[in-house]
Amino acid sequence: MSSPTLLDSNHKPQGAPESKASKNASEMALVHNVVLRGLNCIYLQAPNVTDPKDIADFMLFCDAWSCVLHSHHLTEETVYFPLLEGQCQEKGVMSRNHAEHEAFLPGLLRFDAFVSRVKDSGEPYDAAELIKIIDTFGGALERHLHHEIEGLVGLEKDQSIDWDLVGKSMAQHSKKVADRVREVPFIITNSDMTYESGIHGVRFPPFPWFVHQIFRWVYVPQLQGAWRFSSCDDYGLPKELPFA
Ligand SMILES: [Fe+2]
Questions:
Q1: 28 is a domain residue
Q2: Is 147 a member of any domain?
């Protein structure tokens, strides 16, 4: 698998005010880019992790990445797409995305089983096997993450969609169910504040500065070793990958 391509997270037509549909597409692209950066961090660093302490931290990083992905797709399937499906004129939004989720799920579950065997059962870490597993589903996952954004942009002309309701429902539910130790620190340390000249820094990750600060002080340090594998520091500034 080659390095996944990041998504354009600026869907506002040039010179035009941002529509609610393009705001939704941009915010979804920002989340998807966190997943793509994380996958890239895993793929590039997996072959060079050899020390037992580093392997233990790397497995925590892999586990957090999977937690973010599962949680995002569960919220889409239970909140976001049912709401969209109920409002938009074109039917099939829900089933299309569900089918794409199902396409890479077996590979993702093999990834989870690998991580669990090494992390919880003490099995030896085999980088070649991990890479082989990612090769079975990484391409389908990347295509889905891109395809979903194209689908949202394509719904821009549909006047029957209440984008505020759809977007807020997704954000509220995501915040409510987010794992504070694994998921939120993963998102914080893989949200590049400088991406696209930093135009999204203020709104993503979607919480006020003091909440961000609480996470830096209380939650990020709990798995500090794992975040060494992240693409950014806890201020969202890109950093070198220590094992790439
Ligand atoms: Fe999504």
A1: yes
A2: yes
HSE value, Cβ hemisphere, 13 Å, CA-based, for 57: 19
What is the token pair recorded at 153?
A: 């942009």
Q: How far is the CA of 32 from the centre of ligand 1 (A)?
A: 6
Mean pLDDT of the chain: 91
Residue 217 lies in a domain: no
How many angstroms is it from 195 CA to the middle of ligand 1?
A: 19
The predicted model scores a pTM of: 0.93
For residue 238, what are the β-bridge partners?
A: 232
Tens-digit pLDDT profile for residues 3-49? 666 666 665 555 567 788 888 999 999 999 999 999 999 999 999 99
Write the pLDDT tens digit of every residue in 96-107: 888 999 999 999
- Structurally, the chain folds into a number of domains equal to 1
- Residue 4 falls inside a structural domain: no
Distance from the alpha carbon of residue 107 to the mean position of ligand 1, in angstroms:
18
Distance 50 CA to ligand 1 centre (A): 33
> Which residues constitute the domain of residue 79?
20-180
The CA 73 to ligand 1 mean position distance, Å, reads 6
> How far, in Å, are 5, 24, 28, 130, 241 from residue 168 at the CA level?
27, 9, 12, 36, 34
